[in-house]
Structures are given as structure tokens and as C-alpha cells.
Predict the structure.
Amino acid sequence: MRYFLCLVLVLASLFVGQQNNVAAADPVRVGVLGLDNYQAVAYSQLFNSPKATGELAGLKVVAAYPGESSSDIEESITSLPKWKEQIQKFGVELVPSVDELLKRCDAVMIMSLDGRTHVEQAKAVLKAGKPLYIGRPMAISLGDVAEIFKIAKETKTPCWSSSQHRFSPGFIGMRDHMEVGRVIGCDVYGGCAIDPQHPQLVWSALHSIETLYTILGPGCVNLTCTSTPSAEVVTGVWSDGRVGTYRGIKQGAVKYSATVFGEKGVSVAGVYGHGIPEKGIVPTNDKYMGYEGIAIEMAKFFKGGPAPVSPAETLEIFAFLQAADESKRAGGTAVKLDGVLK
């Protein structure tokens, strides 16, 4: 009996070893399109780490096509050279063209800062049949986002986009917070820096507006936008009567968080990168997640899982952004989202 048990254990360890060798030998090969965004480096560091475990294991960023910097976006000009240098430290090879990139990878991350470039970049990736994640912003307009999803549907290639703020534990954990209960309202706030080449809310404000959708879920039917030199304030009404607001901070101290109103209680949300508050206390000495939360979701997706954010919700978010812009131009008049979507 002892001999039989030993034999079973040996055979089991050999099988596990073989499985691990297969996983190590055949990781999902990820390519990066665009290198003027630090996130390209951050995700490469997470996926290519020899210490990667769990969902983060089994992927490898193998190649990147840097592309060109956008000559009218200062951040793009200054960032491209340094991130080209940094990403190579994680074993990522720079390639001379998109075609060469697509030959070397199984899935792609579009990391270029300029949302104006994303439709054409996404078209090349989707027509090659490579599962695609697009970094914030997915595109510059609702029309461009709809075009990308149309191509994804036609090519039957999965595609999604999201701010990393969506998967910050202290934000996504407010959906089912035991001290709050069912969420009936949410006030989100965060930075509202702008880039002249993008609509105002399609730049850094997108992080907080996506946080609003993370906590409340989709279903906004109309909104108003009030704009002053110090703030952009968007108030949305959901189909079930819930109210969500976004305060874009244009002057003064910039923080990213929210106040969440529920059937059982009211609580501040966590701060970006940290965990869920308990009894109103926000943890800051816990493990900092930063980009790791969304990297885990990307890893699941690249391994064949479903997109964690649906096209319908992403389209609604961009309708929200466009409706806010229309309301602002009209002096704060209410704008219905279904009219924008049509």
C-alpha cells in the first residue's frame, strides 16, 4: 500500500510538472501597439515578471510597435522616447510595423495616448483576429467607439476598453458593500485635466465617470452639466430614479474617490489603488493595486475569457460624455442619452 501511494504521488507530481512546463513554454503572446503611455510599461512589468502568479502568470508581452508620437500632444512627445527604453528592460522587442507586430502575438493592447488614432489601429488588429484591449480613451467620440465595436462584431473578434479605476478594489467593491447595501446614489469626484485635441471629459475625467458606472451600473437616461472655472459637475438620472453625479476638479486639490448612498448606509469609497473602507475608515496601508486590478482582468480576457465590460455599457459611457458636452453647450439643459445614442 505504501509503495502504491508513493507511486501515485510521483506520477501526480510528474503530471503537474508537465502541465507547468506547457504553461511556461506556451504563454499567451501579447503585443503592444503604441508606446507613449506609461501603462504599456506597467502591464509588461506585471505580465513578464518571473514572480507572476495566479491570473497574471501565463502571459508574456513579446513585442511592441512604438508608432509615432502625436505632434500636437505634449505628453505624447515627451513620453515616447522614455517608454521605448523602459519597456525593453522587460524583454519586449521593438518591431518596425503593425504587420510585424501582428505576426508575433496572439493578442494586442493598444496603448497610444491619442484617441484619434484608435479606430485605424483597432481595425488592423481586429481584422487580423487578435483579441484586443484598448487603453483609455477607447476613442475620441461615441461614433468612433461604435465603429470599433461594429468592426469587432463583423470580424467576430472580442474587444473592450476600460479605465484602470474600474477595477480598483475600493471602487468596484462598493457595489456590494455590506454597510451600504443596494446602491441608490453615488457622488464621484476626480481630476478634470484636459487635452486640447480631445473633448474635455474624454481625457482624465473618463477615469471618474467610469468609476460612477462601476458603482451604479448602466442605465442613465438623462443628465445635466454645469461648468465653471473650478469644476465640471454632471448630474445623471438613472431609469430607476437613482441619481449619480460627477464632480470634475479643475482647481484645488485633486483626489479620486466617491460617496456612496445605499439602503443600509452611506460610506465613502476607497481611494484609488486601495481597498474597501470599513466603518468609514479607508485603508491606505494595504497592498497597493494600481494597475494590477485591470491587468488581472486583461489576463483572463487574453486567455479566452469574456470581456469584463460589455460593448453596451461602454457605448452608454461615451453617450454620457457626449450628452454632458451637449448640455454644457446648451447652458445646462437636460439631455436624454437615448437621443444621443440614436
